[in-house]
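go over whats below:
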Amino acid sequence: MVVDKKTKKVICTAFANGKRHDFRLFKESKTRMHPAIKAVTDTGYQGIQRIHNKSELPKKRSKKNPLTKEDKNKNQKLASERVVNENVIGMLKRFKIISDKYRNRRKKFRLRFNLIAALYNWEI
């Protein structure tokens, strides 16, 4: 899901059947962003820098390479920017379509979710 930071509106959605990695879904959806737009993502989008140069994601730690204070501060700053997106996801979860198991026809999921996103955008 792509969310505009200023207006807090849902711009774009992408769906897949079953378990699909976030970055793989992003590549398969062929969603392209203007090169001037800054994309702030979570660690599930490792490798997005090759597709979109102006993207930022938090640095991951490992056993051998723990994070420095500078890295932790940068990760916290990125998380504070991403909180807008997480709040929008939380608002959409109130409709229970993505928080519970979807038990209806799979073909209707896209339409219903996009209608809910449109209702959310209209409410704002």
Summary: Strands lie at 2-3, 10-12, 39-40, 55-56. The longest strand covers residues 10-12. The chain has one domain: 2-123.
